[in-house]
Amino acid sequence: VLSPLEAITTYENKNKIPSDWINFAISRSAPNGFWQRLERGEMELDTEFFRGFNADLRNEKLWKEYHASFRSSKKKLKDVANPTQLGDHVSLKAEAADSRPTDQDRGARSSGTSARQTTEVRCEGEGRPSPSKLAKDTTVGDPVSIESGDVAEGPGSDSASVSGQLTSSSSPTPQEAASTLDSLPPLPKIDGEALFWSMMAHSRNPDPYVFPALLRLKNTPPNNRPILAALSNTIILPPDHPYSRISDHPERDLRSNFDIFISSAEVGLRKPDPAIYTLAVDKLDKFDRERGGDGVKADDCVFLDDIGANLKTAQSLGMKTTKVILGKTWRAVKELEQAIGIELMDDKTRRSKL
After folding, report:
1. What's the average model confidence in pLDDT over 199-207?
2. Between 339 and which of 42, 54, 96, 135 could a Cys-Cys bridge form, CB atoms 3.0 to 4.6 Å apart?
3. Contact 148, 306 (CB under 8 A)
4. Higher pLDDT residue, 184 or 77?
């Protein structure tokens, strides 16, 4: 699906909010910010969440750190902000979207299910192509896109890695610089509920390259393709909310297109915590053995994601990784084709992109 980070940028542009402030505030609120708690399923999507989410977006200490990050170094914000909690910090142009929630959006308060981001997993079992053909056969990752760093890139990637922290010993830390700031512009006014629902609405749209590739894989005979799994940082929506219902296009129900679907809000863990990756491998291993395969290990997996920290954790566990870059998601599809030996693009797309 499309990345909710695009909706953040649209909201910032439309409301004249300093670039990357929203993502900075969310990421720096970790590990127990209201966004992180919602994605771990520790709280419901209700007035308490939106009250806390708004508070995280109006944190005066983080507002000082945000400005200090620019003033204390020539590096861009994405080089100093923690990229592990929502997404890496980037500036991009996104289509305009109405950030005001509808009455339906504001409606319900109790819990149901809905995925915000989704992950792919693939692995080989008995009767499937060999590990050499499938790049050891398993793919895990979010089919969304964003330019991010802090991870070694695979072949064909043109993204530069970033350090994730200031590297100049002569530059003060954001905290030190914040104490020396004599004046700051006022904190921007952000409607956290409007922002939230604009993100949810945007991420309901399928990615034009990754989603068709997923459908092609799903429609390939099981013995001729890897196991497909999703490892997704998701939230739980109220059961009576319109977004909780399957759309008029059942094929867009993400869960139905995977052999295994792991939702952060349902298991109480979220990426990039290594524990949720281990859980995914355990489920893949069990699934493969039940089908008569030899099982799955971490180094049998290929992980797709748009966030550098999520990819870094996968690499540390031995998984192969493919980075999905915002606006260039077809490149991830091309790399995956090469890894598993299955054509995932139609002729028209291939001619226009390759």
Report:
1. 93
2. 135
3. yes
4. 184
